Fold:
Amino acid sequence: MTLGRVVGQVVSTQKRPQFAGATLLLVQPVHPDGTPRGATLLAVDSVGAGVGERVLVVIEGRAASEALGRRAAPVDAAIIGIVDTVTLSDQTSGAA
Amino acid sequence: MQMARVIGDVVASRKDSLLTAVPLLLIQPIGADGQSVGHALVAVDSVGAGAGETVFFVRGKEASFPFHPVDVPTDAGIVGIVDHWHVAAV
Structure:
């Protein structure tokens, strides 16, 4: 899975039916120390993450579809956890 | 998924028969800041997106799911049109 930070939200009314009711959050993948890594991505949120929170993202279709709770949904990324702390072997990054 | 801007379309008369009548749009992935990210690519469209619109697309086998039961040979599919998005100053 990927560590990321929620940076925003997308509103879309014209979309595939499996997205109905799903929250679409913009996530910036981050290194363990919190620095940005690569391009932002869009993930469905299944845990109620808020903007600014550090999250755990699964980037794979079947898993994302299961997290969304809808079979064969055209998704490839889902937020499946809100991160409290990330412990590196020599220091702990508990920063918000 | 990723956001992208529709920058054009692609017409191919000789192609895999399963792509018949499937719209092929040229899209440029963008980040949360609206700037281009990475290379433009061709995606199948199942939501009626048009040039200039901001969309979001899925990669991989899931891109063919909107065309079920037709097993469209694709790795990128537009699955929604973005009305607007907002980015919090974090």
